[in-house]
Input
Amino acid sequence: MRASDGSGAPLTHTGRAWTFGDDIDTDLLAPGAYMKGPIEQLAPHCLEALDADFAHSVRPGDVLVAGDNLGIGSSREQAVHALKHLGIRVVLARSFGRIFYRNALNLGLPSLVCADLHAVRTGDELRVDMVSGVVENLSTARVHACEPIPPHLLEMVEDGGLLAHLEKRLRADKA
Amino acid sequence: MGATLAEKLIARAAGRETVRPGEIVTCRVDLAMMHDSGGPRRVQPMLERLGARVWDASKVVVVTDHYVPAVDAESAAILRLTRKWVAAAGIERFHDMQGICHIVLSEQGYVRPGMFAVGGDSHSSTAGAFGCLMIGIGATEMAGVLVSGEIWVRVPPTILVRWSGRLQHGVVAKDMMLALCARLGINGANYRVVEYAGSAVEALSMTERMVLTNMAAELGAKTGLIAPDAVTVAALTEAGVDQPDALDWRGDTDATYERVLDLAAGELSPQVAAPHSPENVAPVAAHAGVAIDQAYIGACTGAKLSDLRMAAEVLRGRKVAPGVRFLVAPASTRVTHQAAEDGTLATLTGAGAIVLPTGCGACAGFGAGVLAEDETCIASTARNYKGRMGAASARVYLGSPYTVAASAVRGRIGDPRELLG
Output
């Protein structure tokens, strides 16, 4: 099992699930009216049109679980940034909007495609292995097989995202 | 085995003879476009952290369109930061308040057949109408491109959508795309390229073709493409581009498509997407009679000169219904000027339209014309997600500029063909 050296995102994570349905678009995640300001101002409005409690109740280390098409719509990276700012550590979804998926990995928010998560309920304790793609529901003892993070992106996710990864590479080039 | 247009474009950018769907390759970027929202204000701190500079300023285009014109100190500060960064980075292709980025790229002749481009906006797929493979990306990904001039892509399979026959008068590219959103579903072309072909596509003007590639984003596609033809070459020539190999950029006859969808344009009626998804589509008759508070012609999808002319065709000699706000935000300053010169604007304002500044405007809730709680709007834009255009309870319907204008005249959603000669 690969583990983090502490600088980036560990490749296993255990956290509490927050479940949402299909078609969570970027306007719901990062409402346009709050896009002007810093993430501290935007994040409290993340998903408020669906669940006014979410941003106030989510705890650091929680896992977002969604259905099809998570993050469809805009390229705005704040959709990922807001979730990360609120403490979401891993995202699982049946399918993703492609720009959101890349943004998430680029920002060091591990995101896995999971075909079958309908049995997961908000509050369940999930243990996610990003290398193997195995998700254990510790609350129900079910095991879900998800698609692991693509091998060519694993190092970047492990580094904590594209910027940290580039920083490391630029340092290595200079050395 | 032959290659699709997308495979050829990616192979060239990757320096390869051929590529196959599923392969992961690194592409050299011919053009990187950013706007004021996702651009300099986001990438500047990242480049500073990396201690890096833009790899090639001549390949970068910056456009201000989201926060224009500034309405408060915050939006003014975003625009000021954008202008200062562009000057410091030595970027000459900077278009300040001249139009929506995707429209400006086409007007300036920046996107051309054979190119591989990235844009910090999901509707970057619009450039595919010119045979340029352009992918929408986020700000951190853009910072990576600005530093390296490269990006990795997984070679996408292509879905070929062939529209045969001929559209009826009053039925346009927007109706084709809404019908396709219903058929494939939102994100139904995820990770794929959608290529459009067939006699009904060949008959479209360049600006109408741009609606097809623009709304490939609503299908979740990596991008949309249309093989260049004489119409493309004429538009390039008008934009000052002479490209002898333009017509070479097309898929091989024995290319492999993941799926081929054959659709009949002649049977298509005006389509309307109901709240709150672009796939929630039915023929306009299904929503006829829905009362509206606002009609909106705007955005990269629906405010080009051809779109304004459609609206004017409906409004000539008519008035906007009492109690309805009819807002028109032209997609570029060039569009505004051309519409002023040819009388289109006078027809619109004579009917009671309110002309707004050019820019992304109310479409994404950034600019003027957003909606209050419980209001209903029909718009020529691409997206009607809950809360996008203002209050969360506002109801946004999507239609063609013809349908939007006809609904403005009636005060209720209606079929534009009844008002066209």
Notes: The longest strand of chain A covers residues 12-19. Helices of chain A lie at 26-29, 39-42, 54-57, 78-86, 98-106, 151-159, 162-174. The beta strands of chain A are 12-19, 63-66, 90-93, 111-113, 125-129, 134-137, 142-145.
